[in-house]
Amino acid sequence: MKVDAPVNYMVCVRSITYNQSKFVTDTMDGFCAQRTNFPYVCVIIDDASTDGEQDVINTYLNNNFNCCTSPIFFQEETDDYILAYAQHKNNYNCYFAVFFLKYNHYSINKDKTPYFEKWQDNSKYIAFCEGDDYWIDTHKLQRQVKFMDTHPDYTLFFHNAIVRYENHDYPDKIMRAFETGDYNTRGIFEKWHLPLASVLCKREIMDEPLLVELNKVFEGGFCFFITATKTGKVYGLSECLSVYRKNVGGVSNLMSEWEILKRHYGYARLTEDASVLEYVDDEAFRRLIKYVPRYLLRNEGGKKMADAVKHNNKKVFYKALLLYPFLLPGIIYDKLKNKIHGKENY
């Protein structure tokens, strides 16, 4: 039997998780720890995990939520999922709607968006946090909602995050150095890698045609940032309110420089923003300069980077080849300096 959500929410938190049984408890703890004066629902989608994550989530629900004995609790089953919905035992503003998918949707490229729709359509704002990231500020949502409510011309509020390496080979670090304040489209491109778990945005962003087009280039959290700058104002907070786990197998970690550059160009063209295209052209020049020796030696990586630049802007391609001999002394100097200081990455 299909049951409608019993309340309207201020925030719908979207969380997709797969085989993150070691981390998902931290994520759920961060959700439940929020101190708000409004109701919020955390929609968690387990994409048919095989590492015992479903048991971890079920145990967490049974220990922390009013299951079975509460009239607010309900379950629903279809051919695609089992859904459990419940209210937290102590934090009465916190609700969980957990979808245990019966088969892995990612592997067959099946869209998971419809599972969120009923919940986010009953919400004013949307937040994000995947199953390996987590929030560390108990007033994160309250702070963001208060700002957005009192500044209705803003469409998105993001903050900084701590980067934590899964294998602990490196110490924690701040994801990006940036100042608190407003960010336009170019400013977002310049920072580029911003934490999705930091975002609170207006629900209406989900209906923007630009978001649909951006997702065709590459579906990811950055599309929300770009769309927000084109539909209103964006506010960034330099304070770290969440943790971003750096996993070896993450999609973004596997992408090559030329693949990333292609994405940048694809996004930039859709913005129809001359300053953004100028920035990406400069970025392409900087990247290609590093690859010119490999390109001249017919190295596969050098060829792919050169092709990516040439396909998107031939002027940048020929400029890099022409100026490379004049820039070579400076490049060699920088390489030697970085090698001496242990920063060799060329």
Per CATH, which architecture of the largest domain? Alpha-Beta Complex
- Separate helix tally: 12
Please give the share of residues in helix: 40-55%
| Mean pLDDT over the residues | 88
> Could you give the order of the helices and strands?
EHEHEEEHEEHEEEHEHHEHHHHH
End-to-end gap? 59 Å
Helix/strand class: alpha/beta
CATH topology heading of the largest domain: Spore Coat Polysaccharide Biosynthesis Protein SpsA, Chain A
CATH class category label of the largest domain: Alpha Beta
Low-pLDDT ranges: none
How much of the polypeptide forms β-strand, as a percent range? 15-25%
Largest sheet: 12 strands, mixed
Rg of Cα set: 22 Å
Number-wise, the strands total: 12
CATH superfamily of the largest domain: Spore Coat Polysaccharide Biosynthesis Protein SpsA, Chain A
Number of domains: 2
Which term fits the overall shape?
Answer: globular
Structure write-up:
The protein has twelve helices and twelve strands. The model has no long low-confidence stretch (mean pLDDT 88). α1 (24-32) links the parallel β1 (9-17) and β2. Strands 1, 2, 3, 4, 5, 6, 7, 8, 9, 10, 11 and 12 form a twelve-stranded mixed beta sheet that branches. It has two domains: 9-253, Alpha-Beta Complex (Spore Coat Polysaccharide Biosynthesis Protein SpsA, Chain A), CATH 3.90.550; 255-340, no CATH class. It has 346 residues and is α/β, with parallel strands linked by helices. 43% of the residues lie in helices and 22% in strands. α5 runs parallel beside α10, α6 packs antiparallel against α9 and α9 (257-271) packs antiparallel against α10 (274-296).
